[in-house]
Amino acid sequence: MTSVLMVLSAADHWTLNDGSSHPTGVWAEELVEPHRQFRDAGFEITLATPGAVPPTFDPNSLSAAGAGGDDKVGELTDYLASISSALAAPVALSAVTAADFDVVFYPGGHGPMEDLAVDAESGKIMADALASGNPLAVLCHAPAALLAAVDTDGMWPFAGYRMTGFSNEEERLSGLAEKAPWLVEDRLVELGADYSSGDAFQPHSVIDRNLYTGQNPASSGELATAVIAAAAGK
């Protein structure tokens, strides 16, 4: 059975550049849609967070405006309820290694910008997953977590990789760019990523070797589909 580690932020806020806290966490669709696809494909799914803290879901991701309508909110809420026991008892990142899984997948939301971007245990999981050759998938704001990764030489292992993530334009259109202490796109480019983006809030995924990245929540389904195909190919 194919095993997948889904690494979730444990943050419930994002500290803005004025020191205020913006309520956030995991973006619901970015967990639900991949989790549903992995479950339907027969994957064994493990959820992990820093410190084994149950994840918080960004309240906007479960609002009609953020999710895309009341029907979508109902679907997301129902699915999260169906996996509530797993969400309530995630594994600690310190207790898992990339070598134990066939796939590593990071959903986004602004939460990773608060905790996973500076989490050494998460960074090691990412570096090890990349080195393993198995699929490493990172979605929306979760590429922030790539910042914490270093290779055995102390270098950033993702330099030169083609990738995407939540764009500066999307952050601006969301009304948070000016309040952000830093932006995902900017940091990836500064570190040497070959960053690209598609149209704002439209599906866009990039695959480079075993790194799979999706730009935004709308990319959740196609990114999961690509990962499942890759796992089947291996």
TrEMBL record:
SUPFAM superfamilies from the UniProt entry: Class I glutamine amidotransferase-like
Pfam families given in the database record: DJ-1_PfpI
UniProt-listed CDD domains: GATase1_Hsp31_like
Matches recorded under Gene3D superfamilies: 3.40.50.880
UniProt keyword terms in alphabetical order: Hydrolase, Protease
Domain DJ-1/PfpI: 29-229
One Gene Ontology term of the molecular function aspect: peptidase activity
Highest rank taxon of the organism: Bacteria
InterPro entries: Class_I_gatase-like, DJ-1/PfpI, Prot/Nucl_acid_deglycase
GO biological process: proteolysis
Protein name (database record): Intracellular protease/amidase
